[in-house]
Each structure stands twice: as C-alpha cells, then as structure tokens.
Amino acid sequence: MTETHATVPPGAPVFPPGRYGRRREPGRRRPVLTTLLALAAVAALGLVSLRLYQQYGNPAYDAQVITYTEITDGQVVVDFRVTVPPGGSAVCLLRARDRDGAEVGRETVTVAAAQGEREIIARHRLATDSRPFIGEVVRCRPAG
C-alpha cells in the first residue's frame, strides 16, 4: 500500500513504499501505571516527612529559660523549664555566650519529669571557657 497525499497530513515525511516497513501506530497511554507511580511517590514522601517530623519537629518538648545567675569567669547557672509528655524525659542542649555572641560553653543535660507530671524545672551549672554574658537552652528533644 502506498501513501498518497490524501492520507498523509501536510508537512509529514513521505517514505517510499515497502522500504522502511510498516509505520507504528501512536503509543498507547498507560494511565494506570502513571497513577500507581504517582501514588508510590506520594507515599514515599509522606513516610520521609513523618520520620523527619518525629525526629526534629516534636512540639511536645518546649523549653524556656527562667533565669541565669551566678555568672563568674568560669560558669553560669541556668534555671529552665521544660514541657514534656506526662512522666517523660528530655535531653536539652544548654550553651553560654559572651558579650560578642561567641559560644564559651556548651553541655547536654538529661532531665526527667515525675510520674504524671508534664513540667520539669531544672537548674544546671554550666562550665565556661571565659566570662559568659548569657546562658540559654538551645533545644530539647526526647531522651533516648
């Protein structure tokens, strides 16, 4: 069968009959496969998001500095409050900075609430390399 200008759209190439074999029909679309791949990608992203939220974004652990006192050339005492799930414990990162904002002391402290309590009030003596200007709680996260 030869192609004529009546069966070929304008601008399409015309090949000699029988030389290149039969022309393929346009590819069949696979909407089911596309949908399954999209669902798998959404599920994978959802699992990654959940894992990262559990690791870094748990709002149940909230810390506030109450006061920092007893500032000397080698220490600062930080009083802080941590909110945890009832009876839970937390690991908090404390640091001290000098007047220029440079870090002069850093320590990780584990605090635990009494059974059924959600709030922990803790006091920690933080050793420093030089005279601190401020003591602060950087973050708290679940212990373990």
CATH class of the domain at 62-142, anyone? Mainly Beta
Helical residues, percent: 10-25%
Task: Write the CATH architecture name of the domain at 62-142.
Answer: Sandwich
Radius of gyration, in angstroms, nearest whole number: 33 Å
Distance between the termini: 76 Å
What does the overall shape look like?
elongated
Low-confidence stretches: none
CATH topology of the domain at 62-142: Immunoglobulin-like
Beta-strand residue fraction: 35-45%
Description:
- The protein is of the alpha+beta class.
- It has a domain at 62-142: Immunoglobulin-like (Sandwich), CATH 2.60.40.
- It has one helix and six strands, in the order H-E-E-E-E-E-E.
- The strands form two sheets. Strands 1-2-5 form a three-stranded antiparallel sheet, with no helix packed on it. A three-stranded antiparallel sheet has the order 4-3-6, with no helix packed on it.
- The chain is elongated and about 95 Å long.
- The mean pLDDT is 85.
- Keywords: Membrane, Transmembrane, Transmembrane helix.
Descriptive key words:
transmembrane; membrane; 1 helix; DUF4307; Immunoglobulin-like; 144 residues; alpha+beta
